[in-house]
Amino acid sequence: MATSAASVSDAVGEVVGSAFSGLVIVDERCARAARAVKATYRSRLIVGKDTAAYMRYTATPSEPMYLPSILGGAAPSLATCMQDQLADGADFALTPTGRIRDLASLDAAVTQANALTIPGVVLATPVPTRLFTGSERVRAAAILERSRHPVALIVTGQFDPFAEAQVAEGLRVIASSAADVFLHRSDFAAFEALAHGGLGGSIGYLAGLRHTVTGRRPAKTRKEPPDRSPIVLLPEIDSFRHQAVFEPWFRNARPPICSRPGCCGRDLTTLTNKAADHAVANRHNLRAWLPLGAQLTTTPVADRRAWLHAYRQAVENAYADLRRRTRVRAITMDDSQRTWLKLGL
Fold it and tell me: How high is the pLDDT of residue 215?
């Protein structure tokens, strides 16, 4: 599935709707966008809603859900909140779970959601990376197994959480548990969740939806000043990179040309910082990964881990080919790509 903000849901729906996939609209006010997209694509597109309560509220063991009072009156019940969310015709809606900091709050969120008998409810679980490590991940998996609803697992924290082997292993442990888990607001780690027994995943249309930093602190960048060039998926190496990073690679070699059917046909090194080119890059990125998702989902469940590992080995070989072709030895795999490959099957 793809994940988009309400402001770009029409553009995403146009691409994803033709691929018979799904779309999760993430926005505090996503109702209008969900209605419009569902009215256009109906059964051809599964539409979900996420009001992203975790971006502005911290869960506690006593109040794991964000249920603010309306106009000074009583706060709505979780059942009322979810019924309102689903009234717009979306196929499913995520609970308004706050950002979870400990196992007690995670347990409370599962317990409160389990009281609901409404179809179409998905339990949002925005959890920090430390719950994926050591004994914490075993306990977290056991808690999630109690959920009567599908679980949208949202990994929060700065930078790439799956560059750390323990966190990557933790995702596999939780995805392979008895819980119906899908990885939400992610990148190609979504494929790992699907290959290791999860329901699937949602990959962000925009960079901010492929990485979730909650609370008041803004997302950090390793580069100062921040790189404002478009982020482009290079399918050859399965990697999202800033155009300003990869443009120098191809100064003495054939540049990457988008060859996806119905896409831009552009030389990807020529994309600029103009808003129109950022939009081109985002649409290109979506069209580039959708076929990979289709290949994995149509692979028999028992063969998915082997398929994904073989694909990652092919990507490693593609990096070597790219270094030879461009004569740029500094081209290396992303940290998380290297982690997934080292973990093996």
Answer: 64
Domain count, the chain: 2
Strand partners, 50: 26
pLDDT tens digit string along 161-175? Answer: 999 999 999 999 999
Tokens 């780690």 correspond to: 189
Q: Domain span at residue 326? A: 231-343
Q: What is the largest CA-CA distance in the chain?
A: 66
Q: Which of 115, 113, 111, 108 is nearest to 123 (CA)?
A: 113
**Phi, psi torsion values for 152, nearest 5 degrees:** -95, 105
The pTM is what? 0.91
Q: What is the pLDDT of residue 203?
A: 95
- 117 and 164 within one domain: yes
Handedness of CA 239, 308, 132, 176 (dihedral sign): positive
Is there a single domain that holds both residue 269 and residue 302? yes
For the residues 277-298, what does the mean pLDDT come to? Answer: 94
**Residue 240, helix vs strand vs coil:** strand
pLDDT bin (cut points 50, 70, 90) of residue 227 is confident
Provide the token pair at 1: 């599935």
Concatenating the DSSP letter of every residue in 129-155 gives GGGGSHHHHHHHHHHHHT-SS-EEEEE
Paired residues of 236 in beta bridges: none
- H-run or E-run covering 167: helix 165-175
Residue found under tokens 């998702």 = 293
Domain for residue 225, yes or no? no
Start-to-end Cα distance in the chain: 23
Report which secondary-structure segment, H or E, holds 153: strand 151-156
Same domain, 87 and 53: yes
Query: pLDDT at residue 223 above 60?
Result: no
